[in-house]
Amino acid sequence: MATTVLRVRLVGGDRLDITYDDPGLSDEDELVEHAISALAQDSGVLRTRHGDRLVVLYGRGVAAIEVAPRGAVI
Description:
By secondary structure, the chain is α+β, with helices and mostly antiparallel strands. Helix content is 18%, strand content 47%.
């Protein structure tokens, strides 16, 4: 299962670090491409985690995504 941490900047200017994983993928590069493809669609949605909370991220509210080799840079 591939897992990555994304730093997301929302349209309103807020930023948050989220964890995204997909049990169907084993490569982190494929996972990142899947996340980008999903959020690029008008109806794109990702189920992610922020700490212990489930966060549903809608593509229309995302302004930018940062991906670092070891997760988001804090």
